[in-house]
Amino acid sequence: MTIGERVKRLRKDMSLTQKEVAEYFSIGHSTLACYETDKRQIPHDIIIKMARFFEVTTDYLLGLED
Fold first, then answer.
1. Alpha-carbon torsion 28, 30, 32, 38, what sign?
2. Rg of the chain's alpha carbons, rounded to an integer?
3. CA atoms of 25 and 16, how far apart (whole Å)
4. pLDDT digits over 6-52, tens only?
5. Are 48 and 12 in contact (CB under 8 A)?
6. pTM of the model
7. Cβ–Cβ under 8 Å, residues 9 and 43
8. Beta carbons of 50 and 32 less than 8 angstroms apart
9. What is the distance between the alpha carbons of residues 55 and 13, in angstroms, rounded to a whole number?
10. CB 48 within 8 A of CB 60
């Protein structure tokens, strides 16, 4: 599973829309969509913020652990 797939899955598990998550991270809706489809790399600082937000480790997001 890619980082984008993991982010999308976590977002859906929390019943959040892309718009809601994008607003939380102060990024555009289309930017989040590109992250979720792996069309853009997620910057390191956003990965860290996402790990905290979704209450997972950065290793999980990066696919280093399940």
1. negative
2. 11
3. 13
4. 999 999 999 999 999 999 999 999 999 999 999 999 999 999 999 99
5. no
6. 0.92
7. no
8. no
9. 12
10. no
